[in-house]
Each structure stands twice: as C-alpha cells, then as structure tokens.
Amino acid sequence: MNLRNWLFDNLIPAHLLRKIVAKRVAGKGIALMYHEVLPDHEGPAAWTVVKASAFKEQVTFLREYFDVVTLDEALTRNSSSEKYSKSYAVVTFDDGYKGNLTCMLPIVEELKIPVTVFIATRGVEEGTFYWYDQVIALLDYGKELVVNLGQYGLSQYKLNTSKNVKVNWNVMQQLLTALKTLSPQLRVQAVNDILAKHDNIPVRMRMMSKENVAALASSSFVTIGGHSHCHNILPQLSKADLKSSIEENHHKLVEWTEKKVEHFSYPNGDFNAKVVMAVKTAGYKSAVTTQGRAWEGAVNAFELPRYGVGRFDSLGLFIARLGQLV
Ligand SMILES: [Zn+2]
User: Fold this and answer.
1) pLDDT tens readout for residues 221-249
2) In a 10 Å sphere around its CB, with 0-12 CB exposed, 13-18 middle and 19+ buried, how is residue 213 labelled?
3) Measured in angstroms, how far is the CA atom of residue 14 from the centroid of ligand 1?
4) Could you tell me which CATH number the domain at 3-128+205-322 has?
5) How close is the Cα of 310 to the center of ligand 1, in Å?
6) Global pTM?
7) Distance (Å) from CA 136 to ligand 1 centroid
C-alpha cells in the first residue's frame, strides 16, 4: 500500500473525510470511469479489473452522498440553474467486458443505480482482445520477464519482479503507455513480437457477445454508448478510418440493442478537433474523456471529465479523489 492510500485509510477518520467530500463537491457533478468488475478472486490483478466487493462499497458510498443519475440527467442538471440538495454522480464503463453483464449488472440492479456502458464493437463481434489486454495477460506469466522494445525506440520493461501486484502493475502501466506512442501498425507488430516470445499467454479477460450486449441493454438501469469499432487511438487514424470506425460502431450498437445510442467515450481518452467533429457527425450528443476532475460550471458536452477508478484504489483514496483532495 502506498503512503497516499495509507494516509486516507488510516490518518483521516472516514466520517470526517465524507463530510469534507460532501462540502467540496456541493453543486458540482462527478463522472466515474470503470472497465471491468469481477468476483474478488477472478481475473488478472490489473488496474482495469475492480473487485466486486470494492465496487459495491464504492457505489454504496456514492448513493449515500450523491444523486447517482444517467448521463442525460447529469447533462440536464449541469445546464440547469435549479438547486438540488445533493450533487450528482454518473457511473460509466468502457470497452464491453463480460463481467459488466455477469457481475456488475446484478449489483447496480440491487442498488438501483443507473450506469452507462461504452462498447467498442470489434472485440464483441470477433471475440478477440484488444492489444492492451493481450499485453496485460503477461501479468499471468508466473515469473519474471523482460520486454525489450529497443528496436522501436522504446525502453526495456522488467515485469513480474515483485510479490506486490500493485508494483507489478505500475511497470505494466509504463509498458502500455510506451506502446501507445507507436503508430497503430507498429504497435500491432510490437505486441505480436512480445507475445510470440512468451508463448502467447491466454487472456483471462472476456468480452461480451452481441447477445450479451443486447441482454445488458435490456436492463432499465443501463444506457449503451459508443466507443469506436476498432478501439484505436482515434487522433492517430486517417480521416476515412476515423469516420468508418465511429459510424460502424454506432450502427452496430443500434442494431444489436434496438435502442438509440447517443453518448460516446473516446478510446484511451484521446481526442482532437477532427475526432470531435466525426463524433458529432455520427449523431452523438455527448462524449466523455479521461480528464480526472469534477464537472464544474457549464461543461463542454464533448469534453466531459471522468475520474478513473481502478483495482488498487482503497475506499479512502476513492472518497478523497471524489472530493478532489488528491
Ligand atoms: Zn476503452
């Protein structure tokens, strides 16, 4: 556990922290970004996989201190001058993992909170994994390994060196960040090189199927949003590839869910003017980013901030982050 987590879990009493948070977020909104929720003992020890018990604890806290609302309601409140007794919070998921249906949905239905799930359609349709999940699977290698990306002008990364899963994740995060700097073509090549050297470790993550997406969308607590078809870093794409990835994704989600799909999430949080224009042209009315801050004042509907929540966040750190104390 790092010092920051320890401080918020031990030094500051939880009730005091909660009071501070309630005061600091008064009149503001908060949006949270998750990826996957799985039973506590399943899945890789990756930042993106939040344990079911932690997720339940976090949303229980949220429900107590915030009005947990849909993205539509949050946008309405943000532009309204009406005063509400509580601040509002939005819970979102990116990518389209299977645990969203099997593990997360029963929790949010029990607690009666709305969520938005942004789905990238290629992984769902083909049953394949995006490059980052293939790389994350190296955490399951069971022994130390060195990934040398010297030929790509990048560094060398020593994975699985610690018994502490968080320490191992930090190195994984550096490797993923480095790979994101490569062009989509070079990244595929680099990832294939890495996997070939390490026996193509099986990926423990699971994406939803089309039928799973339809089942998730049929819940009255779920809104489905777009996340591109290819899940590439959109500003790196040509104009034609950008347009087709956003439109194919939108078209497929509408077809699978038989519902309107009106909100978008930029893969990896990356966008520029060209990407915003393509998202607007596809008919979306908002888009979320990964800029971690509260919604304060009138927000730009195509640059909505979200706090990322990961496996290694303690409840104290989660609360402190909502209060923008860290
Ligand atoms: Zn994503």
Assistant:
1) 999 999 999 999 999 999 999 999 999 99
2) buried
3) 32
4) 3.20.20.370
5) 14
6) 0.92
7) 14
